[in-house]
Amino acid sequence: xxxxxxxxxxxxxxxxxxxxxxxxNSGLGYVTARELARHGAHVIMGVRNPAAGQAxxxxxxxxxxxxxxxxxxxxxxDLTSVRxxxxxxxxxxxxxNNAGVMMCPKGETAQxxxxxxxxxxxxxxxxxxxxLGKLRPGRxxxxxxxxxxxxxxxxxxxxxxxxxxxxxxxxYCQSKLANVLFALELDRxxxxxxxxxxxxxxxxxxxxxxxxxxxxxxxxxxVLKVTNRYMAQPAEMGALTQLYAAAAPEAAGxxxxxxxxxxxxxxxxxxxxxxxxxxDAALARKLWTVSEEMTGVTYxxxx
Length: 303
Description:
The chain is of the alpha/beta class. It has one domain: NAD(P)-binding Rossmann-like Domain (Rossmann fold, 3-Layer(aba) Sandwich), CATH 3.40.50. Helices cover 40% and strands 13% of the residues. It contains 10 helices and 8 strands. It has an 8-stranded mixed sheet, with helices on both faces. Strand 5 (142-146), helix 5 and strand 6 form a beta-alpha-beta unit. It is globular.
Protein backbone atom coordinates (compact mmCIF):
# COMPACT_ATOMS: atom_id res chain seq x y z
CA UNK A 1 0.00 0.00 0.00
CA UNK A 2 2.74 2.47 0.97
CA UNK A 3 4.71 1.98 -2.24
CA UNK A 4 1.78 2.92 -4.45
CA UNK A 5 0.79 5.99 -2.38
CA UNK A 6 -2.92 5.27 -2.69
CA UNK A 7 -5.09 8.27 -3.61
CA UNK A 8 -8.78 8.91 -4.22
CA UNK A 9 -8.19 8.55 -7.95
CA UNK A 10 -7.65 4.82 -7.32
CA UNK A 11 -11.16 4.30 -5.95
CA UNK A 12 -12.79 1.68 -8.20
CA UNK A 13 -16.16 2.36 -9.80
CA UNK A 14 -18.84 2.52 -7.10
CA UNK A 15 -21.92 2.35 -9.33
CA UNK A 16 -24.66 0.32 -7.69
CA UNK A 17 -23.30 0.80 -4.17
CA UNK A 18 -25.06 2.78 -1.46
CA UNK A 19 -22.78 4.37 1.12
CA UNK A 20 -23.86 6.06 4.35
CA UNK A 21 -21.51 8.74 5.67
CA UNK A 22 -22.19 10.36 9.03
CA UNK A 23 -21.10 13.95 9.50
CA UNK A 24 -20.99 14.35 5.72
CA ASN A 25 -21.51 18.10 5.46
CA SER A 26 -17.96 19.17 6.38
CA GLY A 27 -14.36 18.08 6.88
CA LEU A 28 -13.44 14.45 6.39
CA GLY A 29 -17.06 13.38 5.94
CA TYR A 30 -17.62 15.90 3.17
CA VAL A 31 -14.52 14.75 1.27
CA THR A 32 -15.54 11.12 1.75
CA ALA A 33 -19.05 11.75 0.45
CA ARG A 34 -17.75 13.78 -2.49
CA GLU A 35 -15.15 11.26 -3.62
CA LEU A 36 -17.41 8.22 -3.33
CA ALA A 37 -20.19 10.05 -5.19
CA ARG A 38 -17.64 11.13 -7.84
CA HIS A 39 -16.94 7.46 -8.46
CA GLY A 40 -20.60 6.56 -8.84
CA ALA A 41 -21.85 5.64 -5.36
CA HIS A 42 -25.26 6.66 -4.08
CA VAL A 43 -24.26 8.53 -0.93
CA ILE A 44 -26.62 9.05 1.99
CA MET A 45 -25.33 12.06 3.90
CA GLY A 46 -26.21 11.79 7.59
CA VAL A 47 -26.09 15.33 9.01
CA ARG A 48 -27.21 17.04 12.19
CA ASN A 49 -28.16 20.23 10.33
CA PRO A 50 -30.16 19.49 7.14
CA ALA A 51 -29.61 23.01 5.75
CA ALA A 52 -25.83 22.59 6.06
CA GLY A 53 -26.16 19.15 4.47
CA GLN A 54 -28.09 20.49 1.50
CA ALA A 55 -25.51 23.25 1.03
CA UNK A 56 -22.73 20.63 1.07
CA UNK A 57 -24.59 18.49 -1.46
CA UNK A 58 -25.02 21.53 -3.70
CA UNK A 59 -21.26 22.20 -3.60
CA UNK A 60 -20.55 18.62 -4.64
CA UNK A 61 -23.07 18.80 -7.50
CA UNK A 62 -21.45 21.99 -8.84
CA UNK A 63 -18.40 19.96 -9.83
CA UNK A 64 -20.13 16.60 -10.22
CA UNK A 65 -23.65 17.16 -11.60
CA UNK A 66 -24.36 13.41 -11.78
CA UNK A 67 -23.62 12.87 -8.09
CA UNK A 68 -26.30 10.78 -6.36
CA UNK A 69 -26.70 12.41 -2.95
CA UNK A 70 -29.42 11.97 -0.36
CA UNK A 71 -29.32 14.30 2.67
CA UNK A 72 -30.96 13.00 5.84
CA UNK A 73 -31.08 14.36 9.38
CA UNK A 74 -29.06 12.46 11.98
CA UNK A 75 -28.13 13.63 15.46
CA UNK A 76 -25.78 11.07 17.00
CA UNK A 77 -26.21 12.71 20.40
CA ASP A 78 -29.86 11.64 20.42
CA LEU A 79 -30.65 7.92 20.20
CA THR A 80 -34.21 8.73 19.10
CA SER A 81 -32.76 10.49 16.07
CA VAL A 82 -30.41 7.56 15.46
CA ARG A 83 -33.33 5.13 15.43
CA UNK A 84 -35.35 7.34 13.11
CA UNK A 85 -32.46 7.64 10.67
CA UNK A 86 -31.85 3.88 10.72
CA UNK A 87 -35.54 3.20 10.05
CA UNK A 88 -35.37 5.46 6.98
CA UNK A 89 -32.66 3.31 5.39
CA UNK A 90 -33.67 0.50 3.06
CA UNK A 91 -30.47 -1.29 2.11
CA UNK A 92 -26.87 -0.12 1.97
CA UNK A 93 -23.42 -1.47 1.26
CA UNK A 94 -21.10 0.66 3.38
CA UNK A 95 -21.46 2.59 6.62
CA UNK A 96 -18.78 5.18 7.40
CA ASN A 97 -18.97 6.17 11.07
CA ASN A 98 -17.24 9.52 10.63
CA ALA A 99 -19.09 12.16 12.64
CA GLY A 100 -17.88 13.34 16.01
CA VAL A 101 -17.31 16.11 18.50
CA MET A 102 -13.93 17.06 19.91
CA MET A 103 -12.77 18.44 23.25
CA CYS A 104 -15.98 20.36 23.84
CA PRO A 105 -17.13 21.81 27.18
CA LYS A 106 -18.85 19.37 29.51
CA GLY A 107 -22.30 18.46 28.29
CA GLU A 108 -24.79 15.63 27.93
CA THR A 109 -26.54 13.86 25.09
CA ALA A 110 -30.33 13.75 24.88
CA GLN A 111 -30.27 10.57 26.98
CA UNK A 112 -27.96 12.05 29.62
CA UNK A 113 -24.63 10.50 28.62
CA UNK A 114 -21.35 12.41 28.61
CA UNK A 115 -21.43 14.24 25.30
CA UNK A 116 -18.20 13.09 23.65
CA UNK A 117 -18.56 9.43 24.61
CA UNK A 118 -22.27 9.51 23.81
CA UNK A 119 -21.82 11.07 20.37
CA UNK A 120 -18.57 9.55 19.17
CA UNK A 121 -19.08 6.01 20.48
CA UNK A 122 -22.62 5.29 21.68
CA UNK A 123 -24.32 7.01 18.75
CA UNK A 124 -22.29 5.04 16.23
CA UNK A 125 -22.57 1.80 18.23
CA UNK A 126 -26.36 2.12 18.12
CA UNK A 127 -26.43 3.16 14.46
CA UNK A 128 -24.24 0.25 13.37
CA UNK A 129 -26.32 -2.25 15.30
CA UNK A 130 -29.54 -0.94 13.79
CA UNK A 131 -28.15 -0.96 10.24
CA LEU A 132 -26.04 -4.12 10.26
CA GLY A 133 -28.86 -6.31 9.01
CA LYS A 134 -29.47 -3.89 6.13
CA LEU A 135 -25.96 -4.12 4.69
CA ARG A 136 -26.26 -6.09 1.47
CA PRO A 137 -24.26 -9.29 1.03
CA GLY A 138 -22.57 -9.67 -2.33
CA ARG A 139 -21.75 -5.97 -2.68
CA UNK A 140 -18.65 -5.96 -0.49
CA UNK A 141 -20.38 -4.68 2.66
CA UNK A 142 -18.25 -2.76 5.14
CA UNK A 143 -18.40 -0.77 8.36
CA UNK A 144 -15.68 1.87 8.67
CA UNK A 145 -15.26 3.52 12.06
CA UNK A 146 -13.15 6.66 12.28
CA UNK A 147 -11.02 7.01 15.40
CA UNK A 148 -8.02 9.24 16.18
CA UNK A 149 -4.35 8.76 16.93
CA UNK A 150 -5.25 10.24 20.32
CA UNK A 151 -6.92 6.93 21.18
CA UNK A 152 -3.42 6.02 22.40
CA UNK A 153 -3.94 8.39 25.33
CA UNK A 154 -7.37 6.99 26.13
CA UNK A 155 -8.43 5.08 29.22
CA UNK A 156 -11.81 3.45 29.85
CA UNK A 157 -13.43 2.58 33.15
CA UNK A 158 -16.52 0.71 32.00
CA UNK A 159 -17.98 0.94 35.48
CA UNK A 160 -17.78 4.72 35.59
CA UNK A 161 -18.26 6.08 32.07
CA UNK A 162 -18.66 9.82 32.14
CA UNK A 163 -18.37 9.95 35.91
CA UNK A 164 -15.95 11.89 38.07
CA UNK A 165 -14.16 15.10 37.11
CA UNK A 166 -14.39 16.15 33.48
CA UNK A 167 -11.42 16.57 31.17
CA UNK A 168 -12.12 17.70 27.63
CA UNK A 169 -9.02 15.96 26.31
CA UNK A 170 -9.47 12.87 28.48
CA UNK A 171 -13.11 12.43 27.43
CA TYR A 172 -12.18 12.77 23.77
CA CYS A 173 -9.36 10.24 24.02
CA GLN A 174 -11.68 7.85 25.85
CA SER A 175 -14.29 8.09 23.08
CA LYS A 176 -11.67 7.47 20.39
CA LEU A 177 -10.31 4.43 22.25
CA ALA A 178 -13.90 3.19 22.44
CA ASN A 179 -14.11 3.52 18.63
CA VAL A 180 -11.08 1.25 18.22
CA LEU A 181 -12.31 -1.32 20.74
CA PHE A 182 -15.73 -1.36 19.09
CA ALA A 183 -14.50 -1.72 15.51
CA LEU A 184 -12.11 -4.56 16.32
CA GLU A 185 -14.66 -6.37 18.49
CA LEU A 186 -17.22 -5.99 15.71
CA ASP A 187 -14.72 -7.60 13.34
CA ARG A 188 -14.26 -10.54 15.72
CA UNK A 189 -18.01 -11.04 16.04
CA UNK A 190 -18.61 -10.75 12.30
CA UNK A 191 -15.97 -13.39 11.63
CA UNK A 192 -17.42 -15.71 14.28
CA UNK A 193 -20.88 -15.34 12.71
CA UNK A 194 -19.55 -16.05 9.21
CA UNK A 195 -20.75 -12.63 8.03
CA UNK A 196 -19.47 -11.13 4.75
CA UNK A 197 -19.34 -7.66 6.36
CA UNK A 198 -15.87 -6.23 6.98
CA UNK A 199 -15.24 -3.97 9.97
CA UNK A 200 -12.27 -1.62 9.72
CA UNK A 201 -11.03 1.27 11.84
CA UNK A 202 -9.15 4.32 10.60
CA UNK A 203 -7.61 7.54 11.80
CA UNK A 204 -6.80 10.62 9.71
CA UNK A 205 -3.61 11.74 11.41
CA UNK A 206 -3.49 15.45 12.14
CA UNK A 207 -5.91 16.87 9.59
CA UNK A 208 -7.34 20.35 9.24
CA UNK A 209 -11.08 20.07 9.86
CA UNK A 210 -13.73 22.10 11.66
CA UNK A 211 -13.56 19.76 14.67
CA UNK A 212 -10.68 21.74 16.10
CA UNK A 213 -12.57 25.02 15.83
CA UNK A 214 -16.12 23.94 16.65
CA UNK A 215 -15.39 21.96 19.83
CA UNK A 216 -12.53 23.46 21.83
CA UNK A 217 -12.94 26.92 23.33
CA UNK A 218 -10.67 29.56 24.84
CA UNK A 219 -6.90 29.11 24.72
CA UNK A 220 -7.18 25.57 23.32
CA UNK A 221 -9.17 26.89 20.39
CA UNK A 222 -6.50 29.49 19.63
CA VAL A 223 -3.68 26.96 19.88
CA LEU A 224 -5.43 24.54 17.53
CA LYS A 225 -6.08 27.29 14.98
CA VAL A 226 -2.34 27.95 14.83
CA THR A 227 -1.32 24.28 14.67
CA ASN A 228 -4.00 23.60 12.07
CA ARG A 229 -2.54 26.29 9.86
CA TYR A 230 1.09 25.26 10.12
CA MET A 231 1.10 21.54 10.99
CA ALA A 232 -2.09 19.84 9.82
CA GLN A 233 -2.56 18.15 6.47
CA PRO A 234 -5.58 19.08 4.32
CA ALA A 235 -8.86 17.22 4.85
CA GLU A 236 -8.42 15.76 1.34
CA MET A 237 -5.37 13.87 2.61
CA GLY A 238 -6.86 12.99 5.98
CA ALA A 239 -9.92 11.42 4.35
CA LEU A 240 -7.81 9.01 2.30
CA THR A 241 -7.60 6.49 5.13
CA GLN A 242 -11.37 6.13 5.44
CA LEU A 243 -11.82 6.19 1.66
CA TYR A 244 -9.31 3.36 1.37
CA ALA A 245 -11.12 1.38 4.08
CA ALA A 246 -14.49 1.98 2.41
CA ALA A 247 -13.55 1.26 -1.18
CA ALA A 248 -10.17 -0.39 -1.79
CA PRO A 249 -10.75 -4.04 -2.76
CA GLU A 250 -7.71 -5.19 -0.79
CA ALA A 251 -8.76 -3.58 2.50
CA ALA A 252 -9.47 -6.37 5.00
CA GLY A 253 -11.65 -6.64 8.07
CA UNK A 254 -9.83 -5.96 11.33
CA UNK A 255 -7.29 -3.62 9.75
CA UNK A 256 -6.42 -0.25 11.28
CA UNK A 257 -5.66 2.26 8.51
CA UNK A 258 -3.73 5.46 9.24
CA UNK A 259 -1.25 7.82 7.53
CA UNK A 260 2.16 6.43 6.62
CA UNK A 261 4.19 9.51 7.61
CA UNK A 262 6.29 10.10 10.71
CA UNK A 263 4.25 9.63 13.86
CA UNK A 264 1.21 8.86 11.73
CA UNK A 265 0.47 12.59 11.56
CA UNK A 266 0.42 12.93 7.77
CA UNK A 267 0.66 10.82 4.67
CA UNK A 268 -0.99 8.18 2.55
CA UNK A 269 -3.04 5.18 3.78
CA UNK A 270 -1.10 2.40 5.48
CA UNK A 271 -1.79 -0.40 7.93
CA UNK A 272 -0.92 0.91 11.40
CA UNK A 273 -1.19 -0.53 14.88
CA UNK A 274 -3.59 0.49 17.64
CA UNK A 275 -2.50 1.09 21.20
CA UNK A 276 -2.30 -2.11 23.30
CA UNK A 277 -5.54 -1.19 25.10
CA UNK A 278 -7.26 -1.03 21.72
CA UNK A 279 -6.59 -4.73 21.16
CA ASP A 280 -7.73 -5.80 24.65
CA ALA A 281 -10.49 -8.27 23.75
CA ALA A 282 -11.72 -8.62 27.33
CA LEU A 283 -12.07 -4.86 27.69
CA ALA A 284 -13.83 -4.71 24.32
CA ARG A 285 -16.37 -7.32 25.42
CA LYS A 286 -17.09 -5.37 28.61
CA LEU A 287 -17.50 -2.14 26.65
CA TRP A 288 -19.82 -3.92 24.19
CA THR A 289 -22.07 -5.17 26.99
CA VAL A 290 -22.21 -1.76 28.66
CA SER A 291 -22.90 -0.09 25.31
CA GLU A 292 -25.84 -2.43 24.69
CA GLU A 293 -27.22 -1.55 28.12
CA MET A 294 -26.77 2.20 27.61
CA THR A 295 -28.25 2.32 24.09
CA GLY A 296 -30.80 -0.47 24.28
CA VAL A 297 -29.44 -1.76 20.96
CA THR A 298 -28.43 -5.39 20.56
CA TYR A 299 -26.89 -6.84 17.43
CA UNK A 300 -29.63 -9.16 16.24
CA UNK A 301 -27.82 -9.67 12.91
CA UNK A 302 -25.01 -11.44 14.77
CA UNK A 303 -27.21 -13.80 16.77
